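Quick review question:
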């Protein structure tokens, strides 16, 4: 059954009341009732809280050695009265002059019994303040709620991604608005604002209290860990993951210093925003069997940078394949391309010729692409699930 979009009228009214000029994008989510009363510290994954009398600790520093290329600064293109206009440094890869890595998350795996989950992880919050997520990396306990707060007097849409799947997309047009969402699976979650593409963050969901986030000097400490042998995962949003096996002795500090140079070496340079397509898209004489490219990125405009398909309007012949490529940059947002009526909104109606198959690409990160072959003549109108309500729509006319 087609998803109800009745909430759009309410959200649009709130947005206009808050002084926002654009619509909102709210994907339907399941309201999860609060957990029943009980010892919250025992909730995550069957973890048992017990006194640790002979615990040891893991302490160390996470670094990268060798030359480090600084990621490009983020361009600020909307709501200058709140967000400002000055470019901001990338938050994805913060390394000091000594090579110390900030915001790496160190997680001890497989711990089923030990100290209580910290209150901060059971009452996690992300604050949207001055068009930035605070904190940039948040840790929360599985099977608890995270509070999502908008401290700005403008519209934000906060969207959670678990891998390629969107968990929810909440419009928050009112200053001071707080929504809470329960997360029921341990792992990493990517967070993005659908309105301000430079606003990105991460949530790491843990099932035990033995974790730490590295500080500006790359340092961390995990105390009160029961003695034993453990697999320790080091996760970083840009570099990826690395695992170490470590043995913790009773009442002793066990060092864990990790150089993630191998992960850095595997990183490839992001594609140029101009390289994939001196787009053949507007060629009305495109031959059947060809592939044409549509870029997904931000285009500057008088009202600020806007999310766009480029070209927006395409004419091709039957049998042509369209390839969508996200060229939004390393700190750019994720995009989709879809003509599935299941995901349409009042601002983004899906148009399909009779008998034409619908399509829906994954959420594409910078440099990723997806294709669809057009076999039925007629006119198509498609959109990005997240940014369609903000003008990211396209049309494709397929001729015999």
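Suggested answer, residue by residue:
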């Amino acid at each position: 059954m087609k998803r109800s979009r009745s909430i759009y009228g309410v959200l649009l009214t709130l947005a206009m009341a808050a002084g926002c000029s654009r619509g909102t994008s709210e994907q339907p989510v399941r309201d999860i009732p609060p957990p029943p009363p009980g010892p919250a510290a025992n909730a995550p994954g069957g973890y048992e809280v017990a006194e640790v009398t002979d615990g040891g600790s893991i302490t160390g520093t996470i670094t990268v050695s060798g030359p480090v290329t600084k990621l490009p600064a983020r361009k600020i293109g909307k709501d200058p009265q709140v967000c400002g206009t000055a470019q901001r440094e990338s938050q994805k890869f913060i390394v000091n002059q000594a090579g110390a890595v900030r915001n790496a998350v160190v997680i001890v795996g497989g711990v089923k019994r030990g100290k209580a989950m910290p209150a901060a992880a059971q009452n996690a919050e992300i604050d949207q303040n001055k068009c930035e997520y605070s904190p940039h990396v948040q840790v929360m306990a599985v099977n608890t709620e995270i509070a999502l707060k908008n401290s700005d007097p403008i519209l934000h849409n906060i969207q959670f991604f678990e891998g390629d799947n969107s968990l929810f997309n909440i419009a928050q047009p009112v200053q001071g608005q707080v929504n809470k969402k329960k997360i029921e699976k341990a792992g990493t979650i990517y967070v993005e604002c659908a309105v301000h593409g430079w606003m990105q963050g991460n949530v790491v969901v843990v099932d035990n209290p033995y974790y730490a986030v590295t500080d500006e000097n790359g340092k961390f400490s995990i105390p009160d860990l029961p003695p034993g042998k453990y697999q320790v995962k080091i996760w970083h949003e840009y570099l990826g993951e690395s695992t170490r096996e470590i043995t913790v002795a009773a009442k002793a500090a066990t060092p864990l210093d990790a150089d993630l140079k191998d992960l850095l070496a595997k990183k490839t340079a992001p594609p140029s925003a101009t390289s994939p397509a001196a787009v053949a898209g507007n060629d009305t004489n495109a031959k059947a069997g060809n592939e044409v490219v549509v870029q997904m990125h931000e285009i500057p405009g008088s009202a600020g940078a806007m999310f766009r398909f480029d070209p927006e309007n395409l004419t091709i012949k039957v049998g042509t394949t369209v390839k969508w490529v996200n060229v939004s940059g390393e700190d750019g947002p994720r995009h989709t391309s879809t003509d599935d009526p299941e995901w349409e909104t009042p601002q983004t109606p899906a148009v399909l010729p009779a008998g034409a198959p619908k399509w829906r690409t994954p959420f594409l990160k910078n440099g990723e692409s997806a294709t669809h072959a057009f076999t039925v003549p007629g006119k198509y109108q498609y959109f990005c699930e997240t940014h369609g309500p903000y003008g990211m729509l396209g049309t494709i006319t397929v001729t015999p």
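Why it works: The chain has a mean pLDDT of 84. The longest helix spans residues 7-17.
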